[in-house]
Design a protein that fits this description.
Jelly Rolls; single chain; mainly beta
Length: about 300
Amino acid sequence: MTNEDLFETVLTPVSHDLGGFKVHRTLPAKSRTMVGPFLFFDQMGPAILDAGTGVDVRPHPHINLATVTYLFGGALNHRDSLGTQARIEPGAVNLMTAGHGIVHSERTPGDERIKGPELSGIQTWIALPEHVEEMDPAFEHVTRGQLPVIEDGRAQARVIMGELWGRRSPTTTYAGTIYADIVLGAGGSIPIDADADERALYLCSGEASVDGVALDATHLYVLRPGTAATLTTTHGARVMLCGGEAMTPRHVWWNFVSSSRERINEAKRAWKAGEFPVVPGDDREWIPIPEVPKTVSYP
């Protein structure tokens, strides 16, 4: 097959250097804003930061979305305005549902800072269906051991969300969602089924191809609907599969997502006015709202 036969579009990353590590962002893009419910896709690192340093994402707000954090290396401490404190490590999932409004921070744990912390992983945002956009905020931590793993010789896939290869993840979903971490050993392969409305593949590291078409690292390949394919590698690769139910486009401004532009304007006003709840134990600083309009910010 050719590139055009397999893929609707290929999204090139916009890369940012955030002081010691890079973030590669493929969603949203001008040519494509969503894949299923996914409307934000960032690869963080991989990087080893200097000893004594770390990531310090100050408290900031979200509405009408869910964030999904999944690490390959390192650790992060999550705190939010619900009072949650949760440490995430590789292979586990943090699902934070903003609903009508939540504030959170993400920081490198102190024990990781001592040795020079590793940072490597994926953070995504998922749009909530319109009828639950204003639900109560929630937080869910799913451990590495709770996520189903499919192993077949030289292929291993961890199902982060939804149902894939006959196994279902316990992670909460609000719409049809598929999300998986695929690790292929040398000579490995795995089928990519055509069940979901929209699907995309992202090569994190190594080399891989889909039905003979080579993938470029840090690019998001949106598969054509109804096209089944096989993901293969010669030397080894790590690939993320994401997608699910097609959804109507969302408005995105800074950290706010909604089906309503007016709702985003209200969230802007409320954050400026200090009306969002605070993060207990991490309320001495916060990220101010941008004075120059932005579509999104990290994370």
